[in-house]
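Bench notes, afternoon.
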Amino acid sequence: MIGAVQVLQFASASVVALTMTYFGARQLGAMPQRMDWQFHCVIFAGFLIAALSLVAGDPPLWVVFEIVALSVLIALLDLRLLIIPDVLTLALAVAGVRFALVTDASILTTLSGGSFGFILLAVIYGYYEHIRQRSGLGFGDVKLMGAIGLIVGPYQVPLVMAVGAAATLVAGLVVGFLATRRRPLQTRRFPFAPGLLAAMLASLVLDAA
């Protein structure tokens, strides 16, 4: 059974994370004054998934549902606003460490996965910016990859990154083909977080199969 302390911990962390995301984005002028029903539905779905995971009474499954809820929220924000709030990345990183604890995974392996994910994408980020003299990624993507590395471990980091990049490229090409030709395709910005998070979740599903 999930203890009352764990329930309060997750509930308070979720409320704080969502509140900081909302007001932080509002302060930066990124969040519209009135969020539409789709955004509210996804937030509600995240809490619903977390509540259902409590009923399951299985700590590893509970943390997985928490990871799914955070992933959905981060992907939505990146899709809609092209931002990845640090507080949600931190929450995902904490969930990754807790996932390692409840599954008896090596903490050293977990931390090395986070470090490897962060450093690998940071190198790509810096190299691209040096060669092209402009940013191709947001640094929020780099920090997110560090959190993902904590969850999947160092051996899955290159695969998750490659699959995430491929998914983003395909989505970008499809959107570029279907969208109106108001500006060239190479000037369009496509969020990277949804592809990375989808690849991470697929990796967790395949590991569990």
